[in-house]
Amino acid sequence: MTDSPSFETALAEVEQIVRTLEDGATTLEVGLAQYERGVGLLKLCYAQLQDAENRITLLAGLDPAGKPTLQPFEHAAADAPRRATRPGMKDASGLY
Q1: CA distance 91 to 75
Q2: Is the pLDDT reported for residue 14 higher than 60?
Q3: Which CATH code of 1.10.260, 1.10.10, 1.10.287, 3.55.40 fits the domain covering 7-67?
Q4: 88: left (phi over 0), alpha (psi -120 to 50) or beta
Q5: Is residue 57 over pLDDT 80?
């Protein structure tokens, strides 16, 4: 089993295939084989871009419409009991 090329490698190969096909110096069979290879590489590139977009969406906290997903902020200190600012002083709850 062969590893898939990186996005950059695949894109560079697609660009080379396009240049080769545009110059018209290949036979029909070679041109068709290169075209098929280029389509396969483009599908690979699109899949890699989709994966990257999904990862960014997940990290950014966006919904499918591209809007931010909001969640209430819960700070750990908010659940901790309040303490007096100085020994012997009452805090806002009236406790020492």
Answers
A1: 20
A2: yes
A3: 1.10.287
A4: left
A5: no
Helix axes 28-60, 7-23, angle to 10 degrees: 150
Give the count of alpha carbons within 13 A of 12, CB side only: 5
pTM: predicted TM-score of the whole model, two decimal places? 0.61
Report CA-CA distances (Å) from 3 to 14, 60, 63, 64. Answer: 17, 29, 32, 31
52 touches 59 (CB < 8 A): no
- 89/77 Cα distance (integer angstroms): 20
